[in-house]
Fold:
Amino acid sequence: MMLGDNHDDRVPVTVFVTNASGSEMASKLTGYFVIKYQKFPFKAIAFGRIGGPNISLNIAKKNLDKIKKMSIDSDNLEILIRRKLIEGDVVLPEDSKRPNKPGRQL
Structure:
């Protein structure tokens, strides 16, 4: 997925999850995302069940300031990262396994 910046250029965003722990109701996530060859760390809590999936995303203010200086709308970026986390559009460490979805074969 890509993010449009203030100049209508398309900027690719790749999200990496380096650690996940928790239960069926909520999970703590740590990772980073890459924009324009720069790596930015994040922390998140993923909630499930009642009301559907949701992500509480935390990106350090100093990193949001750097992103704004790159002419990228930080609000739209956070929405995009949340969407990628909810949809599973992330890169996981090679030694981790994604759970199989019912009715879907690998």
